[in-house]
Structures are given as structure tokens and as C-alpha cells.
Amino acid sequence: MTRTTTARKSMAKKRGGSLGKKLSLTLTYLVVGLFTAAIGYPIIWVVMQSFKTQMEMFMNAWALPEALIWANYERALEISNIITYAGNSVFVSITAVILILTLASIASYAFSKLKFAGQNIIYYVFVFSLMLPVPIIPLFSVIVNLGLMNSHWALIFIYTSGGLPFSIFVLKSFFDGIPKEIEEAAVIDGCPHYKIFVRIILPLARPGLATVTIFQFMAAWNEFFNALIFVRRSDMRTIPIGVQAFFIEFSSEWPALFATLTMTIIPVLLVYAVMQKQFVEGLTAGATKL
Questions:
Q1: CATH architecture of the domain formed by 77-289
Q2: What is the CA radius of gyration of the chain?
Q3: Could you tell me which residues come within 8 angstroms of residue 69 by beta carbon, excluding any fewer than 6 positions away?
Q4: CB of 282 within 8 A of CB of 208?
Q5: Which residues of the chain have pLDDT under 70?
């Protein structure tokens, strides 16, 4: 009798646990689905508007386009100067990301694998700077004194310095997770530190590098305030400033505006698509190490 009662309780507990897991999984999918819809629908809506006529857009902004009007993109390319702005943003974003990856990976390797005086203090200064706002007046003075006004290098300098603390924080967690035995074996074989860094550490930290690349590329591509302050020439504008200027000048041409916005989204989606696998691995690995 006792065994039967125990078996029933065990079965009931298993069923309850199974039901709890199903409810938890369902709730998780529901939250993820709602979050995906909240993020994805505005993008889909913008793309939909880019294929409509002006009249169709005003008559029913929520309906699907009756036909794909590619002339809106031709008109956008004709009047928005989007090619020039995109070229400027690509140069600024890619250069800033390359500098960030180079400097942050070297600094993170030093903080993670080497021992030197003041190591922890310097690292926590970087981490603490994540919470500090950048005072615009001293920054403006520095840019002017360096002769970088109306230069893409002003933005590259700002994006690089601003992206280093976060990138060092992320990459150090990946370097900390690489077993010391791998480095020790390389040292025994006579491999110097710079070869260990280039041939062993960096390949193993590809998910972390991909994570930093996507975050920093998106930050540089979408940055508005500094680009507005430090770049005044029209031919030097980046995408956010160019789109704003286009909106002010051609505010009545909504289909062309939405077509321009759609084209500005494409590079970010391409970067994410190329690095999606490493990005997801980087997020999950970083979550377990931090």
C-alpha cells in the first residue's frame, strides 16, 4: 500500500513538473514572440510603405501595397543623395569597428592574461567609464584643437573611444574563459605572447569579436548627435544626418522617404546575417562567463 501511494505521488509530481515546464516554455515563446513583433513590425511597415503610392499610403497606411512600385526607390536615389551618405557611414563605421576590435582585443588580452602593476585599477576605470556621460563642451574643444571639425576622423575618434570600455568588458570575459593550459602548452613550445594572441586567443574568441562588431557597427551607423555637431558639410554627412536633411527638404514625398529609410536598414541586416551564428554564440557564452 505504501509503495502504491509513493508511486502515485511520484507520478503526480512528474506530471506537475512536466506541466510546469510546458507552461514555462509557452510563456517564454509568448514573450519572445511579442518582443519580436514589437521590433520587427515597424521595420516591415516601413518596407511596405516604400512600395506604395502617396495616395495609397494616405488612404490606408496599414494595408499591404497593391503593387510593388520600384520607382519610389529610383526617386529616392535621385533626390536623397543616399549613396554618398551611405559611403560616408560605411567608411566611418567600418574604420571605427576595426580600431575598436584592434585596441579592445589587445587591452583585453593584457587585462586577462598578463600581470602588471595597477592592472585591476586600470580595468575598473574602463568599466566605470561605461556609466559616465561624455561632456560635449570639452569634447568639442578637443576636436577643434585637433583640427578635426568637418572630418570623418572626428566621428571615428569619438566612436572608437566611446566603444572601447564596453568592448574591453565583453572581450575580457571571453579571454578569461580560455583555458590556461592552452597558453602554457604554447609557451612550452616557445611561442611568444604576440603569436599566442594572434594564432590562439583571437580564433577562440570569435563569438566575442562578432558580438562587439555587431554592437559597435550598429552604434556607429545609427549615431546622430555627434555627427550633427561635428560634421557640417553636406558631402560629409552620415546616414542619420542625411536622412534628416532629406526629410526636411522633401517632406511631402513620403514614398521616397520610406524607400530611403529601407535602404539604410539593409547594411545593418547584412552585418547581422553574416555574423548571426557567432553573435548568438557570443551572447550565450558571455552570459555564462559574466
A1: Orthogonal Bundle (1.10)
A2: 25
A3: 51, 52, 53, 255
A4: yes
A5: 1-20, 278-290
| Sequence letter at residue 62 | W
CA 244 to chain centre: 22
Burial classification of residue 137, based on how many CB atoms lie within 10 Å of its CB (0-12 exposed, 13-18 middle, 19 or more buried): exposed
pTM over 0.85, yes/no: no
Domain residue extents for the chain: 2-49, 77-289
Task: Give the pLDDT of residue 91.
Answer: 95
Determine contact, residues 91/220, Cβ cutoff 8 Å. no
The pLDDT, as a whole number, for residue 160 is 95
The grid coordinates listed for 189 are 613550445
CA 96 to chain centre: 13
- The closest alpha carbon to 276, from 222, 206, 220, 221, belongs to 206
* CB contact burial 269-285 (16+ within 10 A = b; e otherwise): eebeeebeebbeebeeb
